[in-house]
């Protein structure tokens, strides 16, 4: 569960422009096996590998973390404060249930993009509500593994816009 090298975003920017935490929530460790008709056939390791590769092309270091435990996800968000410039998060089912994750994202004030593999608005009604939506920069859903890649690209573009201010 690597979170980063412990240096501040300012120190790491000498090597790369940005450092981004990619946070995967519960059951995403089962990607490729779990309901491939909904979530696709890509494994989490494949998605993470592609994110790291895409990050390099965007002059961004990507730090993927997955946990099935809400408290670990909250702690990881808290720890991101002095380590990362942005967060891409797929909170899985916690999207629809976790005020704690919502509050953690709001508290750290790190630009965050919410992503989902499936289109949560075409699924069960309980999935239509996201506790995170009100505290993130934006939300991307329904494009399978590409949701992550689009989310990373959107976040880096957002961060570049902030850097120009």
Structure description:
A 5-stranded parallel beta sheet has the order 2-1-3-4-5, sandwiched between helices. The protein contains 6 helices and 5 strands. The model is unreliable at 1-8 and 10-14 (pLDDT under 50). Strand 3, helix 5 and strand 4 form a beta-alpha-beta unit. Helix 4 (70-79) packs parallel to helix 5. It is globular and about 40 Å long. It has helices at 9-12, 36-39, 44-57, 70-79, 99-108, 146-163; strands at residues 18-24, 60-66, 86-90, 112-116, 138-141. Helix content is 36%, strand content 17%. The chain starts with 8 loop residues before the first helix and ends with a helix. The chain has 165 residues and is of the alpha/beta class.
Low-confidence runs (pLDDT<50, min 5 residues)? Answer: 1-8, 10-14
The largest pleated sheet is described as: 5 strands, parallel
User: How far apart are the termini?
Assistant: 33 Å
Alpha plus pi helix count: 6
Dominant shape: globular
In total, how many beta strands? 5
Which radius of gyration do the C-alpha atoms yield?
15 Å
Fraction of residues in helix: 25-40%
Strand order of the largest sheet: 2-1-3-4-5
- Overall pLDDT: 90
Order of helices and strands: HEHHEHEHEEH
- Structural class determined from secondary elements: alpha/beta
Strand content: 15-25%
